[in-house]
């Protein structure tokens, strides 16, 4: 990119974020509306989003690689040879870079640019964005591609600034890290046991030169084997011939993954036959063990308990010390009611003499000290390196650091006990949207993978959202509309529908990033319905119905 001056830049569409959502938005809008000036701005130094930032050891898909890539470039599907059934982060990043090279996307992306504020301009129906260096970008339309898990959070623990060793969040892993060199003879601590922590811990435990690894676990998570394997050249050729069928299958499942739940209910099936299905799913690679089991597993408490007991036994069989096994088995939520991290030897790591589990439910952290972590039993766990695998201010989090001035100067997010909060559209971080694509009082602004959209298989969700947003933009162009906004009536109905869809799901009774809880973020301690919990098939149908009805629910001018 050429350098930019302090003068204002002018666009038809400004996209923020150059992860999978942003690069596909750039490609698709350019392709469908070639005369428009489209620009992406991105905080990082390169493309990739999640797959650029999260380069911690062990980072890899735990969604099947073959179903987790762009389906729109048939040529690239035939050209690209994946190495693993569950691709490792460096290979995924190479794939994303290849997409950008192949479609000349780099020339539309400005890197190292972080948005500071966004101001709706009523006089000429544009948005004015200002970045951290005070450069200004005026745009008719804005597409937010900022990601659902892009705003890392450090734990709200006293003393974290006092630690004298090296400390970092998993999504800010040091550049040019070399495990053998940088972890040799070190005492490493990891706080957090979500999907990221589980991958980091497992990979670190396998490095023979580390002195020790101490895992600080507040809530155990259910986890089960990933079973990654290499894809042979012969298998890759076969996969290439099956892509149409693979993506057709993804389009037919509730989550966009290849797995379809078994339609039977747990109690309709004799106990031996149940165990047979559970064992079969457990032995299979990937999410079969989460998404391929009986249809009532995540809505019927009893059914969930039976499956959770099966999974708890698997953990007991793998961990030698029964007390450690007991600490690793979740007690406050059933299997699959949080996003299930998949692992490649996580439980066995705790059988090593240099890997220690600190159960924070028994001995909570008191403070981080210059030397390590002090727990309530008076023990100071001395560490050289402290890794925060403590997750993200998810879903609404990426919007949080930006100062928003919507129509009538309305802020986007605010807490109800402040003056600002009383006017905020997402009061107390509770999303209010129409189809998860637009927000009343925020005209000409679209979100890809925003709140109230289905997440599931992320690229499948992204492709649909980008296509719908592009169609809306094309409609505006054809009709010469310079203004589009979701009506309050449509947003009320949609938000109600999203809440309705979440009812009955056991996952909505559990604190997790999916229910909008992050104890490290003020104002995010109460659950909300932040994602579309209905089926992805139903979501796409509703988008198509809206379009067929002349974009019902949107007001154009
Ligand atoms: P996460 O699931 O939110 O986990 C954060 C962890 O940090 C939890 O164990 C949490 O404990 C702990 N924690 C937070 N604050 C703490 C504190 N103050 N004291 C002690 N512990 C604290 O975040 P994540 O692991 O980064 O994963 C987020 C999502 O990213 C995943 O669910 C998944 O969707 C995605 N992801 C995907 C992949 C993949 O595809 N391969 C890999 C990694 C992540 P509590 O549970 O007690 O809050």
From TrEMBL:
Presence of the UniProt keyword Flavoprotein in the record: yes
Any GO molecular function: NADP binding
InterPro entries xref list: FAD-binding_Monooxygenases, FAD/NAD-bd_sf, Flavin_mOase-like
Keyword NAD: no
Pfam families: FMO-like
Keyword tags: FAD, Flavoprotein, NADP, Oxidoreductase
Source organism superkingdom: Eukaryota
Alphabetized SUPFAM superfamilies for the sequence: FAD/NAD(P)-binding domain
Cross-referenced Gene3D superfamilies: FAD/NAD(P)-binding domain
PANTHER family membership: DUAL-FUNCTIONAL MONOOXYGENASE_METHYLTRANSFERASE PSOF, L-ORNITHINE N(5)-MONOOXYGENASE-RELATED
Name under which the protein is recorded: FAD/NAD(P)-binding domain-containing protein
